[in-house]
Amino acid sequence: MVNRSYSTVTRMRAEIPTSPRISGILFDFGGTLDGDGLHWLDRFYQLYASSDLPLARSQIRAAFDFAEARALEDPAMQNAPLEEMVRRHVHCQFAHLSIDDRSLEEQIATQFTADVRVVANRNRALLEELAQNDLRLGVISNGCGNTAELCDELGFSPYLAVVLDSKLVGLSKPDPQFFVRAAQELGLTPDRVLMVGDSLVRDIQPAKQIGMQTAWLIADRTATHPAADYRISVLPEMRAVLTPLAPLE
Ligand SMILES: [Mg+2]
Predict the structure, then answer these.
(1) Measured in angstroms, how far is the CA atom of residue 32 from the centroid of ligand 1?
(2) Are the C-beta atoms of residues 137 and 160 closer than 8 Å to each other?
(3) How far apart are CA 71 and CA 118, in angstroms?
(4) 8 CA distance to ligand 1 centroid (A)?
């Protein structure tokens, strides 16, 4: 007599697609390690919306872009801790918006920083867990030069083998060479590396282009793209790497 349930399980297991074993994980920083797929701009939209300032999203976007450009040129940003970095960023936004309200400026910067710390504290525990499973971990960021300092401050550094900051490396996302460099520094071939990031264009597509596996961090559970091997809606779903991850449907 045939054991139907046994034969079914066997057949299904044989159909599970195999992928190269993941030996290392690269994380984007902004919007990934410091947020659950929420870009800094989206977080500022929310904070401004709760401030009652009559600002259009286009105005906030312009102020944000201005602050981003200034941050890249500001030498003080290169070793700024989290709170100072955010304060400087918000100060530039307010200057561009021609708003003179130091109390509100302080309030927005403080709330932004507090939100980052909550998410980062949760993610520190996740990095620790992944590192304990013999995964080589790294961060690849279009930063201001202070990514390593931020990783120190948020408790990530003990679990990271490499931290690459575009400002210091001289390469930036989405240049595929930046990802090639990251894999080299991890000491792994790209196919053994999983890239985790919230940006399809800056993280997922270039990583896939050089042969990495990719996990796209995006809240929309219906989102899909050929360059994304996996989709996660919050970073702790990375724990599925150990089980392994369920592929995108
Ligand atoms: Mg990002």
Answers:
(1) 6
(2) yes
(3) 24
(4) 42
Q: Which residues pair with 84 in a beta bridge?
A: none
CA 105 to ligand 1 centroid distance, Å: 24
SS3 26: strand
The Å distance, Cα 249 to ligand 1 centre, comes to 24
Amino acid at 50: S
pTM of the model: 0.87
3-state secondary structure of 141: strand
Q: Which residues of 110-122 are buried (b: 16+ CB within 10 A; e: fewer)?
A: ebbbebbeebbee
Q: Ligand 1 mean position to 246 CA, how many Å?
A: 22
d(CA 147, ligand 1 centre) in Å:
13
User: How far away, in angstroms, is 231 Cα from ligand 1 center?
Assistant: 15
pLDDT tens string 156-191: 999 999 999 999 999 999 999 999 999 999 999 999
- Residue 245, pLDDT > 60, answer no
Distance of CA 47 from the midpoint of ligand 1 (Å):
19
Which of 148, 199, 180, 246 has its CA nearest to residue 39?
A: 199
Cα–ligand 1 centroid distance for 3 (angstroms): 50
